[in-house]
Model the fold of this input.
Amino acid sequence: MPAPLLRMETPDTLPASADCVVIGAGIVGVSAAYWLARAGRRVVLLEKGLIGAEQSSRNWGWCRQQNRDARELPLSTKSLALWEEMTADIGEDMGFSRCGLLYLSDDEQEIDTWAAWGKFARGEGIVTDMLSAAEATERGAATGKPWKGGVWSPTDGTADPSRAAPTIAKGVLKHGGMVIQNCAARGIERQAGAVCGVITERGVIRTRQVVLSGGAWSASFLYQMGIGFPQASVRGSILSVAPGARGLPAALHTSAASVTRRADGGYTLAISRFAQLDPTPGAIYGAKHFVPMFAKRWRLLSLGGLQAWQAGFETRKRWAMDRPTPMEAMRILDPRPSRKALDLTLQRARNLLPGLREVPVQAEWASYVDSTPDGVPVIDGNIGLQGLFLAAGFSGHGFGIGPGAGHLVADLMLGREPITDVSQYRLSRFGQAQWGKVSEF
Ligand SMILES: Cc1cc2nc3c(=O)[nH]c(=O)nc-3n(C[C@H](O)[C@H](O)[C@H](O)COP(=O)(O)OP(=O)(O)OC[C@H]3O[C@@H](n4cnc5c(N)ncnc54)[C@H](O)[C@@H]3O)c2cc1C
Done:
């Protein structure tokens, strides 16, 4: 069974024009469209497959400030408040709650890294509690073993990946926006160096502002226009177990495995950052940018197969605007999970939490995680074509900050005060290699 997803009906007809078009309905695109519609803009949200069907429904659901890179911390704090605000405004549950996140470790170096982060974060006004060995052991009682230390972040939480993006899309409709599924944007029409329309598989929409929030497809889309965006993806494999395990923490991270309670009472199981690197043309062309990141994380990466190459999402071929593109051939990027990774995850999670031994596996899936060379997204309206805004490269932690990222890109488009400083999210920072700048977390 694949990752669960709430489905919604949307119309087939395309409007002739719009104030702005958002390409890609993951958590970032739906949030951008939501804030634009809320500001009174005539917005059209285009999705080549189903809303939220790629990374945004396949993740753990963590919405965290804990261990965030300093460049993302203000955005994650704002996003936690926006999850609450959106839920109240839309009037439907997205499974968001500040249930707190628990980190446990026996590795003194890891505990020291968390302590250093905690010192910095407390200076930023974030509540984060370092746990002594006794406290960690008490909070981690469900593991049945002693721990050397840990962290408890009481104001962080989780949301339900199967419901979040579709529910926010309902919010777009509530505020007068249009949402269209099964409709790929093939390219951008330009006039005098500025956007004047979006070419879709069903015709052209006239517009002067476009957000590209296409997740793993963003670099190949920009490549068609000669805009370089260093982006590479790794394949993460993940599974969920049925409800029935009692007394487990809502969200627990350890180096062995991480578990997250799901809305149905089951748990999502995963190993942090454990992933397969499937070669693609994009990764090969962009290799020089990604050497620092892969050098830092090579212990957790293994070489995968050809499925990413065949899926075509990181192609470096030009496509024609009047013929089906790789996006229409692959409506939903649904890679095969690694059997080895799934078996190891289940074994480690059941060793960690004996309560999981009696509950059966419910679903298994994989997803490509799109990343930038420094592990921080690009949110930028100055990428070489007037009226085109990019919000992509969320590097494995974009779900929690999706609401804020969408707000930020809407701020840029509306010319209003941004909710946080955008300078650290510029595309132009990738002029040089990122040694020493790769996010630690
Ligand atoms: C296993 C795993 C665990 C993770 N855990 C967490 C976590 O706990 N917390 C966290 O914060 N983050 C987590 N992440 C990362 C998070 O899921 C992503 O960063 C986030 O979902 C990215 O959202 P997005 O909107 O940028 O991209 P996506 O969700 O991938 O959405 C992009 C959408 O654009 C569409 N699209 C692309 N091109 C076009 C086009 N030309 N026309 C029309 N549509 C197009 C695609 O079909 C897709 O639906 C995890 C990721 C994975 C894979």
